[in-house]
Each structure stands twice: as structure tokens, then as C-alpha cells.
Write a structure and sequence with these properties.
By secondary structure, this protein is an alpha/beta fold. Helices cover 29% and strands 22% of the residues.
């Protein structure tokens, strides 16, 4: 999705390894769209100035890695951040284009404003292939649909693992970074069927957008048994007393650190 930008994309891989024995490997993947115009499927101008915040998932991964290192947690934590702009240019990806992916699956681009899931797909596939994490969690300011569903009070939680959901919800309650689980039923998979590629990046429907985005990502985790997707579109940026307009919240860092501390305590018990 970087073809419209004068700035090259980056694929950032970070690792924190404890000095002693590592109890588990945690893979974190964050959406790092540093500015999102929507591409040729351009966004309305009203709130586009907030689109510098479309890297909220990447920021949460960076912050979590830093905190894990400072706290010297006995976990191996891997952070993967695909970073890019989504800009408009004569070279920009066009709706209807078919592109490849790191995993080898082809994707029909229906909407260039559904760009975050395209880069997350490669981040997830890379993390699984190269690090085989015990737990895989991605965070992304992914869909307006999630904001319409949950407002600015909770992030959307999607997972294929009930135990992981329970632990993340416990951490959400303790930290105040609230989550609400939404379904990942296979009924939604047909919404991504393409006539010319393995799948398409957008259903074309105005309904269930957060769910179909999560189903898209699920196609790239290689059936990882403990995966969670956090759609933080409504909570990564919010009103606060510290700024005259909406500002970054750092949502996800406290949540993930608390979750990882829980894993450590569970192992030690």
C-alpha cells in the first residue's frame, strides 16, 4: 500500500530476550500506518487530520516491548511492525488490483482504505513463520465499524482461544483498558470470497466490518491456536484534559503488560 508515498515503507522487527530462562514467547504485531488518506478510496476531510494516529497499534507494541525490557520480564517478546503511509498518487494501488502477500495468498483490493489488514497479514505470517510464538496478539486501529459498535469505551476483541480471551478480559478489567469480544464465526468467511484471487480485503458491505476484517486476518495466522486481534480504533485516540483536541491514549500497553505478568505468575504457581 506504499506506492502512493514518497517515503519508503519499513518492516520493523524487535525482540526482548530475558537474561535468564524465557518462560514463553509472545508475538505482538502492530499496525503502523503513519498517515492514512484512504488512498484512492479517499476518506472524507472532516477527521483526516487525526489519521496520523493510525499507528496506534504499532505504538502499543513499541511501548510494550520497552516496558517488558525495563521490568526484565522472564518472557521472550517479539514485536513486528509493518509501517507505511497510505497516500494518493498516480502510482497508488487501485481498487480492483490483485496483490500478493508474504504467505503467498493473493488478495483482491476492493477498498484501498482497508489497507491496515493488508500489512498486518504480512506481519502475522512473518511472526508465525520465524518465531513460532506461544501466543500471538495483534493490535490495530483497524475499522470504523468497531467505533460504531463500541464507541470510545472499549476495544474489539477477536480470538480463537477461550482461555486467552479470559486472561485478556481479566487484564482489561484490572487496567481499565476494556475489551468486548465479538464473534469469529465462519459464516462471515464467505464475505471475503473473490472471483479473481484467494480472498478480497473488503466485503463491500456496510455491516459487520470489524468482524470481516478479523476474519481476513485469521487467514494469515497459519491456524495458530492462541491468537487474539484487538481492534483499538475507538480507544487509541480520545479526548483528555491534557490536550485541546483528541490525543493518543497509549491503549494496550498496560493491558499487555498486565497480561504478561499474569502468565509469569501462573507459571511460577
Amino acid at each position: 500500500m506504499n506506492r502512493g508515498s514518497e517515503r519508503p515503507p519499513a518492516f520493523i522487527v524487535m525482540e526482548y530476550k530475558p537474561k535468564g530462562k524465557s518462560l514463553r514467547t509472545i508475538g505482538l504485531v502492530g499496525k503502523g500506518v503513519t498517515f492514512d488518506t484512504g488512498g484512492l478510496s479517499i476518506k472524507p476531510s472532516t477527521n483526516m487530520h487525526y489519521m496520523k494516529s493510525d499507528m496506534g497499534g504499532a505504538a502499543a507494541v513499541l511501548g510494550t516491548l520497552e516496558m517488558a525490557a525495563k521490568l526484565e520480564l522472564p518472557l521472550h517478546v517479539v514485536g513486528v511492525i509493518p509501517a507505511t503511509e497510505n497516500s494518493v498518487d498516480s502510482l497508488s494501488t487501485k481498487p480492483g488490483d490483485v496483490i500478493g502477500s508474504y504467505l503467498g495468498k493473493t488478495i483482491e483490493v476492493i477498498d484501498t482504505d482497508a489497507e491496515g489488514r493488508l500489512i498486518l497479514a504480512d506481519g502475522l505470517a512473518y511472526a508465525v513463520k520465524h518465531y513460532k510464538p506461544d501466543v500471538l496478539i495483534d493490535l490495530a486501529t483497524l475499522t470504523g465499524s468497531c467505533i460504531r459498535t463500541l464507541g470510545t469505551y472499549a476495544g474489539g476483541l477477536f480470538s480463537n482461544n477461550d482461555e486467552l480471551v479470559g486472561k485478556l478480559n481479566d487484564s482489561a478489567d484490572r487496567t481499565g483498558e476494556r475489551l468486548w469480544r465479538l464473534p469469529l464465526w465462519d459464516d462471515y468467511k464467505k464475505e471475503l470470497k473473490s472471483d479473481v484471487a484467494d480472498l478480497k480485503n473488503f466485503s463491500g458491505s456496510p455491516s459487520a466490518g470489524a468482524i470481516t476484517a478479523a476474519k481476513f486476518l485469521e487467514e494469515f495466522i497459519e491456524k495458530h491456536p492462541a491468537w487474539a486481534h484487538l481492534d483499538i480504533a475507538g480507544v487509541a485516540v480520545s479526548d483528555s484534559e491534557f490536550a485541546s483536541q483528541k490525543s493518543a491514549t497509549g491503549f494496550g500497553i498496560r493491558l499487555l503488560i498486565d497480561y504478561m505478568k499474569g502468565l509469569i505468575a501462573e507459571t511460577a504457581a
